[in-house]
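User: ok so my PI wants both of these folded by tonight, can you help

Assistant: No problem, let's get them done. Here's the first:
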Amino acid sequence: MADGWQWDRTLFEGSAAHYERGRLPYAPGFAEALAAALRLDGRGRLLDVGCGPGTVVLALARYFTASVGLDPDEGMLAEAERQAGRRGVTTVRWVAGRAEDLPAGLGEFRAVVFAQSFHWTDRDAVAATVRTMLEPGGAFVHVSDLKHPPAEPAPPPLVAPPYGQIGALVRRHLGPVRRAGQGVLVDGTPGGEELVLARAGFADVERLVVSAGEVVRRTADDLVAWVFSRSDSAPHLFGDRQADFERELRGVLRQAAPGGFFAERLPATEIKIWRRPHDTR
């Protein structure tokens, strides 16, 4: 968890409805790559901690007997359940709770996944607890976009989203320090997962990079949804100024692309895997 910041339940308040439209997907084939790396055969159980609207757990559910999606945001869980119904996935149980509530009587798992959610937790305590919840040889999995190097820009004459200008507009409305729930992140979110997992008794990380590279078209509505899907620009942070902010945001987007269309290249997906040794708890 970031120094000087405390979690509160407004972190993603109002963001769930914007996820599907606003967020870029993980690399095509990431679920298949992870299934191959873990030698999944349709047995065992999966826990997705901080599951959000179910993006990862729904993609992986077919490789397990049963899955659990855990998230403290009721809006996220409602959206996840809606997405599960739309996709016909019936093997996922949705549970309201934080990572710090684990083990929460949820039992043992073949894999526990954190998809861009581990940095919001009390990482040392959570990693130690998760280790006790894994079956022998079970895997702690961290999934994220590969940010270094960043994805190459879309080829000309396609117009890239004006992320720099969007960020400047957010800061003008919400202040120069990144917002997160009712607090701020002076130094951003923490990294260094390898050190945290080593302290918890995990070793020998396995790293997969699943390439993407496809160019996807984005509309102004998609980018507005992207902004509101983020913790640092969640709808509630703007209060009664949300409509004014959105009006200015759409003006920035119109100026950048009068035709209303943008394009960007999907980033690769990075997957890190740590396994619990067979002979220890």
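One down. Here's the second:
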Amino acid sequence: MQSSLDALKSILDADCLLTDNDSLQQYGKDWTNNYSISPLAIAFPKTTDQVAEIVRWANKNQVALVPSGGRTGLSGGAVASNHELVVAFDKMNQIENFEQSTQQVTCQAGVITEQLQQFAMDNDLYYPVDFASSGSSQIGGNIATNAGGIKVIRYGLTRDWVMGLTVVTGKGDILNLNSGLIKNATGFDLRHLFIGSEGILGFITEATIKLTRQPTSLTVLLLAIPELEKVKTLLNLFQKDIELTAFEFFSDKAMEKVMKHHNLPRPVESEAPFYCLLEFDATSEEIIERALSCFESGLEDEAILNGVMSQSQQQADELWKYREYISETISSRKPYKNDIAVTPDKVSDFLHKVDSIVSEHYPAFEVIWFGHIGDGNLHLNILAPEDMEYKDFISACEKVNPLIFSELQKMGGSISAEHGVGLLKKPYLSYSRSEQEIAYMQGIKLAFDPNNIMNPGKVF
């Protein structure tokens, strides 16, 4: 193997192959905490050609490969536990081309999400895919998991912004997919096979991303809600008159923890079991008046207890903290996370069923709910009791999963809305995908990766 690694060094630039233990531990994992880390080495390619040579080397030497982007994943999709070579895209971080006329930008896979967002702003444009890890997640990883985030209700998923891809397949072939075309009716659009594929077909090395116009006056409403059923009522009420850019939901327990941890004041006078945060682009006084009219209707119908509307961008940013700070606030409690989705009309019923399941089986566990209610994406966070061994806590949560996922299956939902399958959700894939679907997926992987070297053991 040492001679093989020496051959790999000749493919890469100097100092782009690391084998020290600190690097192995840093680059061989993502944000999940419950997997052992044991990669062979960490490779840092700088070009698509180097990635292709790495893949060919891996096929020749029968070495498995694991992709590593910003390592912000929550499903174990970037974990290297079995002496795989980790291919880290940190050095493929260049924005390579920008066409003002088409509002398309081509960048390497290692470009940080926030870097692309800033590039768009510098050119008076907007990249709307946004989430808590935008400061460290990479574009390639976003595409490989079809990342969603907080603005899906208005702008859609990562998939909706990818106009072209350059990928390296499991055979080491380089494919240029769609090349930024708006219209292309020439058979299968293989670009969409790689979006959300979690690196099991091949590695994304470059992407052509479309941008859009900047919103001019993003305004936030934070509402106190008396009961869960009113969330659907409010979503329908506001969507009827306003084009929302976000519609978020969180529980009172989430609110209390954020206020305590960050020393924030209570944003509205009324305490409530649930809160909603709405965002919209107030491009005119008419839109503001419509929003206020909806708010007043909500008060009259007792769907809203109280609320506050931002009067400036600074105030909007301050209100967003109550939602965006939740994950960071509870991270020290090592929450067991379930990232799940149902259609928005089924959210209330599903939340009630899951609360009932957790309360019945684990009454001592603390549950924190939040999510992107406008697209039916819910984040269930069960907090580890401080006096309980973490492995026992994980085991207990895994026993509840089949009960939760059975309810999800009945409602036609997804076991993973935006975090991917990876290792964490792999045992439960059949709750969202039929036996026939999984067989076709396995057949597709075999076509692109016949030697099973691309992120093996993930998804299925």
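The radius of gyration is 23 Å. The chain has 15 helices and 18 strands. Good luck tonight!
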